[in-house]
Amino acid sequence: MNSSIKKTDHLSTDHLLGDLKVHTIRSTGVTFVAQGFKFVIQLTSIAVLARLLSPSDFGLVAMVTILTGLLSKFMDGGLSMATIQRPDVTQGQISNLFWINVALGLLLTILTIACAPALALVYDEPRLTWIGVVLSMSFLIGGLAVQHTALLKRQMQFKVLARIDVISMTCGVLAGIVSAWGGLGYWSLVILTLSTTASQVILVWLASDWCPGAPLRGTGVRPMLRFGISLTGANFVGYLASNLTPFVVGLVGGAQQLGLYNRANTLTAIPSTQILPPVMNVAQPALCRVAGDPERFRRAALSLIRKVSLLTMFITVSMVVLADWIVDIFLGPGWDAAVPMFRLLAVFSLVEPVATITSILLIAAGKANALLKWKLMTLGIIAVSVAIGSIWGSMGIIAAYSLSGLLIRLPFFLVYASRHIPVSRTDFLNVFLPFLALALFLLLALIGLRSSLEIVNATTGIVIFLPVALVFYLLAGLTIKDVRIEIMDIYQTTLVTIKGRKG
């Protein structure tokens, strides 16, 4: 047998199938612990940098990251998920994918440098050219670790990945804060990004036991490339859809309005960025392993959606009601104009986690092409919504984006997804109704409680309201059967995770 197509032990996942649930539970626990550390680091960076930098500093870098974020969807090429999703992979296949990712990183670096002057011209802001040139290096660096990270995820080595994430994020934030303190302004945000990426690449290579070989023919990599192309297309279109809003806000309102939007969006996205990565990282390989069993896949999918909904509903309602206090605590004086933006984007935070989980289900089922088609439809809906909203300026744009997500895009996506995965429309409806009722109860309770109390200090208000809200939410949830089952399952999962860590 050709050595290039011989499967090696460290590429196999057979050892995971015997006790996949235990692996999943422990991996989820470890990843959530890491997310807790990352949450603290991110909040610290937001609070410190918001006091060292101006809204226009964030707006300038946000103008460039719209471009770099868009191009970043091509760096992976969907090939990391192709590595994770495929039942069997070989040394030759992964080596070929590694070199493709490296080539994509180099190409995107060159493309970003070429596009930077045009971006500066569009926004009439000359400083964007050099910001784009320097940020382009993140593609060149990041392409070196795509397949190493994918293999660690495939093997469910999430304890290792969690450490890497925390350490690299800490290095980046420290570099950014020191730079901002030293008076480098918007360049400190560029330094933060590059330091985080470089640290992560170095640590992933040190942690991985895999080294790429030379590119070879006849490795059977074409099906993986086809899957990757469809997934890349879906990610690319999805990024266009989600970043159309900040792009238009920047055009209509300038750097000041975009800076306010950027900070409000970053704050409202924190719960999703803390909850979704550990869920996605663990759920993707776990769901891929059971994709061939429709009933097992369905049960796993519904349980995952219920747990995410339980957390999402509480977070969304709390952010809507306590928006002014949250902005005051984390952004400080001078950011009051971000409060209404924050409140509208908090409404959308209900949509993002559920839509992301549904996308994961389509990918795990091998339906990347179906996901691409939906992303194209989503882009059209957002384009029309934002165009209408722009009549009323920046706030109209944000309102149109958020409300269309809640009332149009999410419901239609669930109906569309039910045609491609073994989860029916009735299943989705039965999952969400109890949690929507619970969220409505919490919203009314918090509004009533806040109107009856006079609290001036934001920190005091948060300290009082959040524990009370959580108690209300859990007690009300225990009265609903489906919600009670998920609360108890999370409790038991936590116990298993703690015992596993002690063991």
TrEMBL record:
Pfam families, A to Z: Polysacc_synt_3 (PF13440)
Keywords assigned by UniProt, alphabetized: Cell membrane, Membrane, Transmembrane, Transmembrane helix
Transmembrane segments: 97-122, 128-148, 308-332, 344-364, 376-392, 398-416, 428-449, 455-478
Membrane topology: Multi-pass membrane protein
Subcellular location: Cell membrane
PANTHER family reported in the protein's UniProt record: LIPOPOLYSACCHARIDE BIOSYNTHESIS PROTEIN WZXC (PTHR30250:SF10), PST FAMILY PREDICTED COLANIC ACID TRANSPORTER (PTHR30250)
Family: Belongs to the polysaccharide synthase family.
Name of the protein in question: Teichuronic acid biosynthesis protein TuaB
Species, as recorded: Thiorhodovibrio winogradskyi
Originating gene: tuaB_3
